[in-house]
Amino acid sequence: MSAAPEQPADIPDWRQQKERSNLFGLRLMVWLSLTFGRPLGRCVLYGAAAYFTLFSPRARRASRAYLTRTLGRPATWSDLYRHVLTFASTIHDRIYLLNGRFDLYDITVHGHDTLMHAVAEGPGALLIGAHFGSFEVLRALGQGKQHLPVAMLMYEDNARNLNTVLSTINPAAAPHIIPLGHIASMLEASARLNDGWLVGMLADRRLEKDATINVEFLGKTAPLPLGPWRLAAMLRRRVFFMAGVYLGGNRYAVHFEPLADFSTTPRESREAAMHAAIGAYAERLEHYCRQAPYNWFNFFDFWPSE
Hints:
- This protein is of the alpha/beta class and about 300 residues long.
- It is built from ten helices and nine strands.
- The protein has helices at about 25-35, 40-55, 55-70, 75-100, 110-120, 135-145, 160-170, 185-195, 225-235, 270-290, and strands at about 105-110, 125-130, 150-155, 175-180, 200, 210-215, 220-225, 240-250, 250-260.
- The strands form two sheets. The chain has a seven-stranded mixed beta sheet with strand order 1-9-8-2-5-3-4, sandwiched between helices. A two-stranded antiparallel ribbon has the order 6-7.
- α1 (about 25-35) runs antiparallel to α2 (about 40-55), α1 (about 25-35) runs parallel beside α7 and α2 packs across α4.
- The radius of gyration is 19 Å and the shape is globular.
- The protein starts with about 20 loop residues before the first helix and ends in a 15-residue tail after the last helix.
């Protein structure tokens, strides 16, 4: 169930959290990983995950609140550590995916044919996901054998150090990011779509002044932003739910599911269509959170009253 749009607070909680990484440590991690390979690079992750689990109390509280809801039992320290380690693993794998090392991974794709049909008719299609699993795997499909060019609409300021370092791995990947918060963002997204691209957005965090809709998510009302859905309605494209689920080791499963079709929605019906799409999005996100609980990476107070 959705409600009327609510006025947001001035600064979203996730925007108030500072990036914990530093440029030297990130560059060292990249050098070690590319020089000595993924197995040795992953050894560093275990210590890093333990450090952040122990010394990031705010993120730990948020992780515990989320995992307790998802797992249906009180989250243990082992759960909290696994949650952080899963996040660290997906970040680490970006090093190799950006470097074109697709051969290191076992990636299965679900819903490919349905998506390709929509792209051909579109042209292009919108992918709406969450801070869940790996969106880099989705972009890897565009650069690999699947031949699906993907651009991501992203807000990058809260991970500026990480994005700076990762962009040096493969500068050719930079044009595939469309920064949010600019007037030209929608025009660039429209141009990519017209060229038959996939354009992705993450719809579980809001920007400043972005209205929200309260929906039922993991057993409690949660505010989800309206902005991505307004953009989808204005661009008049088919929308797919996307999830790049990390399965452990070197395995990922990429899922594409039809979510909404704004290509033929009359203007007077857009508001109702957006509300229906947000409800469907929350339902699919909850499904994947319960299926792969350690893949959701919102380490802030998603349910502010908790």
